[in-house]
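Box S1 | Example of a co-folding query
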Amino acid sequence: MEHYFISAMFEEYDVIVVGAGHAGCEAAHAAATMGSKVLLVTMNMMTIAQMSCNPAMGGIAKGQIIREIDALGGVSGIVSDKSMIQFRMLNKSKGPAMWSPRTQNDRMLFSQYWREALEANPNIDMWQDVVNKIIVKDNKVIGVITNIGIEIKGRSVVLTNGTFLNGLIHIGEKKFGGGRTAENASTGLTEQLVELGFESGRMKTGTPPRIDGRTINYNIIEEQKGDDSPGQFSFLNPIKLPKQRSCYITYTNLDVHKTLETGFEKSPMFTGRIKGVGPRYCPSIEDKINRFSDRERHQIFVEPEGWNTVEVYVNGFSTSLPEDVQLKALKQIQGFKNVKMFRPGYAIEYDYFPPTQLNHSLETKLIDGLYFAGQINGTTGYEEAGSQGLMAGINASRKINDLDPLILKRSEAYIGVLIDDLITKGTDEPYRMFTSRAEYRILLRQDNADLRLTKLGYEIGLASKERFNNVSDKNSEIKKLFNDLKHKKLIPIIINDNLKINGSSPIKEKTSIYQLLKRPEIDIEKLIEIDESLKNYLSKYSKEIIEQAEINTIYESYIEKEQKLVEKVEHLENYKIRDDFDYSKIKALSSEAIEKLMNIKPKTIGQATRISGVSPADISVIMVYLKR
Ligand SMILES: Cc1cc2nc3c(=O)[nH]c(=O)nc-3n(C[C@H](O)[C@H](O)[C@H](O)COP(=O)(O)OP(=O)(O)OC[C@H]3O[C@@H](n4cnc5c(N)ncnc54)[C@H](O)[C@@H]3O)c2cc1C
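Box S1 (continued) | Returned holo structure for flavin-adenine dinucleotide
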């Protein structure tokens, strides 16, 4: 086919983003807001920011990521808030490091608000087409070629193809090409990238059936309401949800398991037809009943797909068994006796590129100006994808302006942990974020994401002045209140009775609120109940400011301890290692360490310590060598 630059139609773009999923949308918005001229090429403009799987954002560790995206000036938090139908703060009974916001979303509105956000940005052009080749000259990307034979010039390209690269969908014994149900797969790109020297792999994921809510008996299943006082993701313009839709909980049972087992011989999972590696921690229902055969039931969350639809997402019932087996098993679940199915569940296999082929900026090591973000890097989840897209968009834009990449440290953000894990350790199964992956959890809380990151977002030209001002004011108010809590004292006669009621020992002399809050059985709510003047004093502060001052008081010693740890480890990040450093010359290194180090090319000693297979002894040897 003849290719031509149709320059009359397309100018040369600073950044071409391929794919308008969660990663692509954040990438396009970030780069464009920072002043780059962006073209967002996507296969189908009706599926912008489509939620391929569950209609929900956030949750444990993922909620922290959304708040970080928002703090930096990204859009996922705002769109999630606007389209939410339910809000819950998970893990509220645990310490604040574990609190994780989660929204149930209206799938259609989520997509619509994202599209509106992109259309509102004058630096973003859109083009509906399939990119099946990138154009590379002298190891530098200079544009893309689309399915209809159009060449478009770009100074950088961000690939965010999601589950679409050679996507193969399985339902029982049936299999067909597709990037998602009812959408085509993307072919050609993987093959070209492999020819260029990239390594690719195969992963898989799955989704549950969607059912008709009119056929569910909600009276006999457990209702799960949203929080009484719903919060939101975005630090900007808080939205207070006036009403919420409930989710419901039901369970599988032994009859359901027996029915599902009748489909095992046709299961693509068990017959070996699926070759890709799936997410261990997000198993299909057939996987669960196979692996945990002693369990008599598994929990099912019944999640509405929006405000004005009867469609329901059956969370916990991901499956690729034959559709008739799916329906028969569903009907045996409590409350689902008469259920009708809208869409069957399915599994999908797709290509990904091991992320050790990337730099921290998400630019590929092989091709200058080419960035990968999202599921293409072996991750799973909207939040993981969105955050990578944001960073790839930021860094593509910075690169064409000759600026150093923005790299978030592990001690600054979950996003920093995510990217460092990916490019340093790689992943051989779909990577999702957990709080346990972060070593500085008490610093990386969802509630302080703006205090950690908004200044950075503002300095790079992404977060707005309004955000920056909000955070500066918030910071000053928190400091003032924290200080006041040290000086404001309560007298024994007023509070001793109440302390006793709360199982706390009485005070003998005037004691500061700061000191009282250090007692685990006491919190600010309890003190307000006792002391009217304190209640009056605190009424000038918002809930968020009081919460921050309280967290800073209660967790002061833990926060200080983690900060010291960061400082201790930070010096290792200052030992820079050149890309061309020849590890094979160091005889004392193990051969495994040499291979891993040569492959990953860590930029610092700190990064080298995190490579699996590189021991503390190897690190000492490298340090001695570097010092020489
Ligand atoms: C069946 C299924 C089940 C899933 N289950 C889960 C789950 O249980 N838990 C979980 O956390 N995540 C799950 N996911 C993953 C989640 O959907 C993804 O992690 C997330 O959507 C990835 O975002 P992304 O932006 O990288 O890609 P996607 O959201 O997949 O978006 C990719 C975009 O790129 C476009 N595109 C692709 N190729 C081209 C091309 N060549 N040219 C132009 N446009 C192109 C597509 O049209 C699409 O708009 C599932 C996904 C699927 C499909």
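The chain has a mean pLDDT of 95. Residues 18-24, 41-44, 47, 52-53, 130-131, 160-164, 179-180, 186, 189, 205-207, 282, 348, 374-375, 380-382, 385, 432 surround flavin-adenine dinucleotide (CB under 6 Å).
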